[in-house]
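testing teh design pipeline on a random one, pls ignore if ur not involved
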């Protein structure tokens, strides 16, 4: 199977490329531009469009889960004071683990309907406050949540 990975492919693109080569698929390229700008129309037919929601997992950086966890660890190590600056605590996201995403993408590659659009995200939606509370349950120290510092 030939695979072209496009759009928001910074972390997920490399992860998918590694997985694809492990199962003897040829990765034609990784392009961080949106598909309509990345290749000529019809060049990679049959094709589908997949919208990937927030992705997190091992090795991920700069997503809400890893960012808040990193800040908590920095507080624990004394690198930053026990104040976690955040933006909108009510902001809600559907997160999908990158390993589940790979399985879903692979299933789509084997059973897709050309021309269709597929949305891949988690089953649950969590607020930033939910993520902070989940992190707090794993800690042995306390920290305050404060306004984002610009």
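output:
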């Amino acid at each position: 199977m030939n695979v072209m990975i496009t759009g928001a492919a910074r972390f997920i693109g490399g992860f998918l490329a590694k997985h694809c080569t492990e199962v003897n698929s040829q990765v034609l390229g990784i392009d961080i531009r949106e598909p309509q700008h990345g290749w000529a129309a019809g060049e990679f037919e049959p094709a589908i469009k997949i919208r990937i929601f927030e992705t997190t997992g091992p090795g991920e950086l700069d997503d809400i889960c890893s960012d808040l966890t990193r800040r908590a660890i920095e507080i624990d190590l004394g690198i930053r004071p026990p104040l976690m600056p955040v933006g909108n605590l009510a902001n809600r996201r559907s997160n999908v683990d990158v390993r589940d995403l790979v399985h879903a993408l692979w299933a789509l590659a084997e059973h897709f309907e050309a021309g269709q659009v597929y949305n891949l995200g988690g089953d649950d939606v969590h607020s930033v406050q939910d993520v902070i509370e989940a992190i707090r349950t794993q800690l042995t120290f306390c920290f305050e949540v404060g306004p984002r510092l610009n």
